[in-house]
Design brief:
The structure holds two protein chains of two kinds. By secondary structure, chain A is an alpha/beta fold. Chain A is built from 18 helices and 13 strands. A five-stranded parallel β-sheet of chain A has the order 11-10-9-12-13, with helices on both faces. In chain A, helix 9 runs parallel beside helix 10 and helix 13 packs parallel to helix 15. The longest helix of chain A is centred in the first third of the chain and has 16 residues. In chain A, 55% of the residues are buried. Chain B has one domain: Glucose Oxidase, domain 1, CATH 3.50.30. Chain B has a seven-stranded mixed β-sheet, with helices on one face. The radius of gyration of chain B is 13 Å and the shape is globular. Classes of the chains: A alpha/beta, B alpha/beta.
């Protein structure tokens, strides 16, 4: 990789051992992907829940945090993905004091590095939306795909160590989705059944994701009749990234790099379209279906809820009571939680028996241990991303609309 | 007679180890019981098998960004694979290997390594040179 004078200074250790580690790490990754050089980035977003970090990861962060302040502080706004635990609600979810203790250590280390603890996977809705053409170092696959596709920003999936390195150096290796060549459409899907609610949009993301199945594929969706909302695109993108490892999509007429179908494919002739029919949606839902079973836990998360989604949950729960044998959990960002508190939404959800957790996103929060401690197995959600990933933690997940999820939570069984 | 395979320059130190091969993918978060050191997703082709100290040969990496931390955490407990060989890596596993200083190579001149390499083969992996040598065919 070509290095600037400043990058060579960092590599030589003249700006301290923390930045030296960061630039070394980035060069190893950049050379693996044939990056010609570095590109400056405007924000870094670090995924670093304590379940993933483990003792080894937290001790490593504490090592960085022990460096001199001038050497250890990030150079650009650096924010965080959801944490492993919400100190205000962890006891109600039967998470342990040991989990809280390691969480507190990780937070102290990040704060010493100058990281802003936003604890959110919807930063593009709540913190500072990316701008078209802006280069970024983002963690969380849902954040990357939304920022790349809906905003036209440029980021790869940056794992926690790499995103933190980006915050420390203010740059990232120029490869993958930073380059025009990788941003052209590669697959074409003709959506013949119109998704309605966010569960449908997540299902569509799951269907396309299963078909695309590669970080390097860029699917293009046509025949969608209405312009989707931010929440619908949030669930679509999160599912597409989760099922397919996909980081960029185009919707001609909707997303900024695809004013037309032709431009979605950078002027090349589009490949033959794969149709997606109602039968494909039905089969997707059927692959996670179960009726009549007791429902142990209803989860609204993955991604965290927007203020509008919080309002929708509160409205559907008004005057009702969640069944005594069923738990209902809503995960949102700290910013939205403050707003929901102020506007009375949290009170309405909790009066019905729900738990509103802030700064977490359920699956990154010791999901296996929560299942064991609470006796949870059957999980109902409107998040296609969550049904994809939670089975590995010992749950039996089912996908349904928010209305059906809440009706089932009240009945205590899947309706 | 050793068989020499050319690949893209990789990450991590040169190592020697025994291959464990499957036409399947890899996610540290969703496929593994990291405490026991075995593949734990029932639908994975290596379900129930130990990956500790093995050279994993798989198609690609799947799943979220957590794998980037998890390889480091597994290595710290001595429960990591010796190396990972992919047909094509994604960004997260490349970053995770760089962070954990774990050996990782991909992009073979002769095609898909899950076809070129068999379970039980003794491999010498030299990431800096972009070479994988099959020392003893299983």
């Amino acid at each position: 990789m070509r290095l600037t004078e400043e990058e060579q200074t960092m590599l030589a250790g003249e700006l301290g051992p923390v930045r030296q580690w960061a630039v070394r790490h980035q060069i190893a990754v950049g050379e693996f992907f044939d990056a010609p050089d570095f590109v400056p980035v405007g924000q870094a977003h670090v995924m670093a829940d304590t379940e993933s970090l483990g003792e080894a990861g937290v001790a490593w962060l504490e090592g960085l945090a022990a460096a001199a302040p001038a050497h250890r502080r990030v150079r650009i706004p650096t924010i965080t993905d959801p944490r492993g635990l919400d100190f205000a609600s962890y006891k109600r979810l039967k998470q342990t004091d040991a989990m809280a203790a390691i969480e507190a250590r990780a937070i102290a280390a990040f704060e010493a590095l100058g990281v802003l603890m936003t604890n959110t996977c919807i930063n593009y809705q709540t913190i500072l939306p990316p701008v078209r053409g802006e280069h970024l170092a983002l963690g969380d696959t849902g954040v990357v795909i939304y920022s790349n596709s809906v905003m036209g920003a440029r980021s790869n999936f940056e794992g926690g160590p790499s995103a933190l390195a980006g915050g420390l150096t203010g740059r990232t290796p120029r490869y993958g989705y930073h380059l025009d060549a990788h941003r052209a459409g590669t697959l074409h899907f003709d959506v013949q059944h119109q998704p309605t609610d966010v569960a449908d949009w997540g299902a569509l993301g799951g269907i396309v994701g299963r078909a695309a199945n590669s970080y390097w594929q860029v699917p293009v969706m046509t025949s969608l009749e209405a312009v989707p909302s931010s929440d619908q695109l949030k669930h679509f993108g999160a599912a597409l990234a989760s099922f397919g490892s996909v980081a960029l999509f185009h919707m001609p007429g909707v997303t900024p790099e695809a004013p037309s179908l032709r431009e979605a494919f950078h002027g090349r002739a589009p490949p033959g379209a794969t149709p997606i029919s109602k039968a494909d949606f039905d089969a997707f839902y059927a692959s996670y279906a179960a009726a009549g079973d007791k429902v142990d836990v209803v989860v609204f998360a993955a991604p965290q809820l927007s203020l509008f989604e919080m309002s929708q949950v509160a409205g559907l729960l008004d005057g009702r009571r969640i069944h005594a044998d069923t738990s209902l959990i809503v995960a949102t960002s700290p910013e939205i939680k403050f707003a929901a508190d102020r506007m009375g939404l949290t009170r309405r959800i909790e009066e019905a028996g729900g738990v509103v957790a802030a700064g977490v996103c359920f699956y990154q929060s010791y999901a296996r241990e929560m299942a064991e401690a609470n006796g949870w197995r059957r999980l109902l959600t409107n998040s296609a991303k969550l049904v994809n990933i939670i089975a590995g933690y010992g749950y039996e997940p089912m996908l349904a609309s928010m209305e059906r999820c809440i009706d089932s939570a009240v009945a205590g069984k899947i309706l | 007679m050793p068989i020499v395979l050319q690949c893209h320059k990789g990450i991590g130190p040169a190592v020697t180890g025994t291959a464990l091969v499957a036409r399947d993918n890899f996610s540290a978060r969703y496929d593994l019981d990291r405490l026991e050191g075995v593949f734990s997703r029932p639908t994975h082709k290596l379900y129930g098998q130990s990956y500790v100290g093995q050279v994993l040969v798989l198609v690609t990496a799947k799943g979220g960004v957590a794998s980037a931390w998890m390889l480091h955490e597994m290595a710290a407990r001595g429960m990591a694979p010796k190396a990972i060989v992919f047909d094509r890596a994604n960004t997260i596993l490349a970053q995770g290997a760089a962070f954990a200083e774990l050996t990782l190579v991909d992009r073979f001149a002769a095609g898909d390594p899950t076809v070129l390499i068999c379970t039980g083969d003794e491999l010498r992996i030299e990431p800096a040179e972009g070479l994988v040598t099959i020392l003893n065919r299983a």
